[in-house]
């Protein structure tokens, strides 16, 4: 079941990359337009990027949590699937947002 | 309409060029070729932005295929103060 955990890590990394791209576009636009709308998008991207970066730290690098997460007997498959589903939904949302923003 | 203007002009990657196109068309209606030349943009880029602005009800064209002239819609004119607020920031 390590593959589910790996998939969750991969999605977190992809989320960070997409959000960095979105943050770049919205940050550049905010610098130019100073509009409330663009500021909202920028803050959203930065916070969601922080959330994913924190997830990577906690689940990959944090010495205590990673041991717990990577031990199958402590985190049964149903819990792994639940964590993966949340990441997958978030990823789908961000992909869609990237598609409409890259116009 | 105001939300559409904020999104299409400041929420997307091509926003800045769309603002330039809108400002040029406000001065006087032009076709895609003239816009590309006057704004020193790639013709295909201009075409793409014109399509997006039309899809969102910001621009309308005269319907003459290749030489079609583009101008702001009545709806966009109605909310032109929003457009000007955005344009001012770019100058």
TrEMBL record, chain A:
Keyword field: Membrane, Transmembrane, Transmembrane helix
Transmembrane segments: 6-27, 39-61, 81-102
Pfam entry (one): DUF8036
Protein's name according to its UniProt entry: Uncharacterized protein
UniProtKB/TrEMBL annotation, chain B:
Species annotation: Halococcus saccharolyticus DSM 5350
Secretion signal span: none
Pfam families attached to this UniProt entry: HTH_5
An annotated Gene Ontology molecular function: DNA-binding transcription factor activity
HTH arsR-type domain boundaries: 1-91
Name assigned to this protein: Transcriptional regulator, arsr family protein
